[in-house]
TrEMBL record:
<feature type="domain" description="Secretion system C-terminal sorting">
    <location>
        <begin position="32"/>
        <end position="101"/>
    </location>
</feature>
<dbReference type="Pfam" id="PF18962">
    <property type="entry name" value="Por_Secre_tail"/>
</dbReference>
<keyword id="KW-0732">Signal</keyword>
<protein>
    <recommendedName>
        <fullName>Secretion system C-terminal sorting domain-containing protein</fullName>
    </recommendedName>
</protein>
<dbReference type="InterPro" id="IPR026444">
    <property type="entry name" value="Secre_tail"/>
</dbReference>
<feature type="signal peptide">
    <location>
        <begin position="1"/>
        <end position="23"/>
    </location>
</feature>
Length: 102
């Protein structure tokens, strides 16, 4: 009997966290490509395609780029080769992804 209660508790917690993640979290339809970036440009697509604030951090957490894009093209040619953290904010929703620049 205890096993059934434990299973139900875990199931309800999992469903609760999944719904919370969808309500507060990711931007619907978010796509970042090409990753790794080879030509100094990356493209960011979303379902709504609204203006996006883009913040890029290096691996030490230092902000190296902050811009707003109206379309889907982001110029990263000023960044050195390496691994970065990209944060995109669109209509109060945020997504964070790893970005590799080669």
């Amino acid at each position: 009997m205890k096993h059934i209660y434990l299973l139900l508790l875990l199931l309800s917690c999992t469903l609760g966290f999944a719904q919370q993640s969808q309500a507060n979290g990711d931007i619907p339809g978010f796509k970042l490509y090409p990753n790794p970036s080879l030509n100094g440009k990356v493209y960011i697509e979303t379902a709504q395609n609204a203006p996006k604030e883009i913040i890029i951090f290096d691996v030490l957490g230092t902000q190296v780029l902050r811009t707003t894009i109206l379309g889907n093209e982001l110029n990263v040619s000023d960044l050195d080769k390496g691994v970065y953290i990209l944060r995109a904010i669109e209509q109060k929703k945020t997504v964070t992804r790893k970005l590799v620049v080669k």
